[in-house]
């Protein structure tokens, strides 16, 4: 038996739609695999009752098929499904690393990213690598069709997860079909700023680069209390605030550990003022999937 831990992630970071991703140090999924004649799946943990165990409908089943690696797979969910924290991606990432090692397929971590992304297609309908890349590789990642760039960065983050559900498919439906040239220019400018900030581990630049005039405003309408939570986070010292992935989690960049504590409390209070229960994760940018 092999066990692999894969962390939660945040995709997009505002200005990097379907491109940017970052690994957290917590929470995480743990996937255990054993060789078998056919793939079977068992799911326990947070939200496990909502996750199908049919291999044809589960992200890890697609990964096992892509690797030609049938196994009994146990997923211990630490990341709530439909959270915007890369729940399905973490399971797919952990399964890809575990099954590759179990069957000695010999793939590099970078080569496992598109394989794990095939698992994501089961959930979202498209094989996006923006969550699976950081969950496998760690750090801040830039996912392209021709590969992934990974940057080690040290920026304190807060992820605040309200007790509401926004599915990835629903969040993609509200994305505008086009953008004005001025919005494209602003997005490129912000994405470049964010990337420079990650390369320098500069929370101020990272925060300034999170703004997005196209996708985030459309998705914000799906999150009760979004505007108030965003304002409260800035008032408490956040350098930038955006939606984490497809939502409903919200992501804030912070200057230091003291600010991250104040920001987390402010975001929780603002959600409470909107009548929404929530929980917050204070995290550093973490490592990728780890064999236990």
TrEMBL record:
Pathway: Amino-acid biosynthesis; L-threonine biosynthesis; L-threonine from L-aspartate: step 4/5
GO molecular function terms listed in the Swiss-Prot or TrEMBL record: ATP binding; homoserine kinase activity
GHMP kinase C-terminal domain residues: 197-271
GO biological process: threonine biosynthetic process
Domain GHMP kinase N-terminal: 60-139
Keywords: Amino-acid biosynthesis, ATP-binding, Cytoplasm, Kinase, Nucleotide-binding, Threonine biosynthesis, Transferase
Keyword Zinc among UniProt keywords: no
GO cellular component: cytoplasm
Subcellular location: Cytoplasm
Residues bound to ATP: 80-90
Catalytic activity: L-homoserine + ATP = O-phospho-L-homoserine + ADP + H(+)
EC number from the UniProt entry: 2.7.1.39
Family indicated by similarity: Belongs to the GHMP kinase family. Homoserine kinase subfamily.
Function, in words: Catalyzes the ATP-dependent phosphorylation of L-homoserine to L-homoserine phosphate.
The protein's name in its UniProt record: Homoserine kinase
Organism: Halosegnis marinus
């Amino acid at each position: 038996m092999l066990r692999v831990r894969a962390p939660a992630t945040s995709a997009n970071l505002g200005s990097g739609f379907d491109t940017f991703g970052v690994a957290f140090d917590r929470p995480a999924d743990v996937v255990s695999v054993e060789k078998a004649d056919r793939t079977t799946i068992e799911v326990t943990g947070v939200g496990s009752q909502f996750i199908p165990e049919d291999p044809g409908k589960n992200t890890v089943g697609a990964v096992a098929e892509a690797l030609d690696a049938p196994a009994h797979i146990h997923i211990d969910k630490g990341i709530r499904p439909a959270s915007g924290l890369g729940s399905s991606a973490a399971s797919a990432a952990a399964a890809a690393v575990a099954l590759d090692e179990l069957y000695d397929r010999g793939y590099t971590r970078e080569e496992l990213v598109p394989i794990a992304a095939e698992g994501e297609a089961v959930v979202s309908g498209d094989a996006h690598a923006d969550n699976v890349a950081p969950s496998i590789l760690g750090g801040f990642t830039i996912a392209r069709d021709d590969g992934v760039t990974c940057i080690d960065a040290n920026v304190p983050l807060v992820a605040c997860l309200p007790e509401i559900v926004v599915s990835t498919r629903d969040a993609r439906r509200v994305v505008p079909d086009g953008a004005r040239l001025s919005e494209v220019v602003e997005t490129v400018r912000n994405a470049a700023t964010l990337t420079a900030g990650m390369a320098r581990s500069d929370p101020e630049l990272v925060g300034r680069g999170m703004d997005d005039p196209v996708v985030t405003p459309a998705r914000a309408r799906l999150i009760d209390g979004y505007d108030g939570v965003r304002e409260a986070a800035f008032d408490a010292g956040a350098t930038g605030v955006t939606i984490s992935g497809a939502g409903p989690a919200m992501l804030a960049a912070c200057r230091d550990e003291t600010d991250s504590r104040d920001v987390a409390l402010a975001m929780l209070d603002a959600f409470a003022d909107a009548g929404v229960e929530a929980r917050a994760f204070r995290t550093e940018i973490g490592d990728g999937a780890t064999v236990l």
